[in-house]
Amino acid sequence: MQTPQISMLLDGQRLHFHHGPIDLIVDATGPGRDLGLRRAADRFDSVLSELASELHALRRPVEDCHPLRGKVASAMQRAAAAHQPGFVTPMAAVAGAVADEILHQICAAGDIRRAYVNNGGDIALHLTSTETFAAAIATGPAPRITLTFDSPVRGIATSGWRGRSHSLGIADSVTVLATTAAQADVAATLIANAVDLPGHPAIRRARACDLAPDSDLGARLVTVDVDALSPEDVASALDAGARYAARCLSRGHIIAAYLRLGETYRVIGAPEHLTQPEKDRLHA
Asked: What is the spatial distance between Cα 36 and Cα 27, in angstroms, rounded to a whole number?
């Protein structure tokens, strides 16, 4: 296993943490910044090896998993288990749970005004009362949202069939806001899976294990291409995803979800986390 790499980006502010498949952009402000980043670097050294030691269990359906030992693995298991019944493995939460853990180490230093850990687009966030965080949303009329201290959102994740992970559905993107990045990560994956038209001839699929032999999805069919769909088909697929997102919202798993397929979108969840101009755009 290669050695973890940590380097300063060209802006002289953000750090790049890289180890195998883990690729983080990390930043923090406040008097505790230097200590917080040192704590994050120290913890990063062991994250991948800790996950690798339980990888076989992490790739199994969550209902078949025995209690996991590692801190990040346990957080992944809890986030996935919240969505039972239904197929999901703890790996659905891996990017978000890693981001949450590195953020926790930064904030444990104290005196951190604002910090974030971006793990390939899945973001764990810390804010104090004077700080805000702007995030890009590739869905709907508000392409950026601004989160404040008063917002409960501390995790953001995006999934879809065009992303870096395989999807069972056809959503171009699903962005979820939740109280942790691990929660957002699982929910984005499952909502994106639900945006679907089972058996539709315009959708081409392949077995996940044929594309990636070690995939936690096994022989399940994942989306590899989507031809043109009628407006009615697009609406049907998005409605299915929106129904699943609404269930996630009602159970407290998410705060909001933004679903997009082509040029059509759905927004699920209350907009209290948005600034007034962004609320106006959403309701325009």
From this structure: 10
- Provide φ and ψ at 167, rounded to 5°: -130, 145
Angle between helices 231-250 and 181-194 (to 10 degrees): 140
Q: Are strands 144-148 and 256-261 parallel, antiparallel or unpaired?
A: unpaired
User: How high is the pLDDT of residue 50?
Assistant: 97
Cα–Cα dist 100/154, whole Å: 9
* Paired residues of 259 in beta bridges: 174, 266
What does the pLDDT read at residue 138?
Answer: 65
Instruction: Report the distance separating Cα 184 and Cα 9, nearest Å.
Output: 27
pTM: 0.93
Q: Give the start-to-end residue ranges of the domains of the chain.
A: 5-282
What count of residues does the chain have?
A: 284
**Contact indicator for 195, 257 with CB cutoff of 8 Å:** no
Question: What architecture is domain 5-282?
Answer: Roll (3.10)
Place of tokens 């180490």: 105
Q: Write the pLDDT tens digit of every residue in 193-223.
A: 999 999 999 999 999 999 999 999 999 999 9
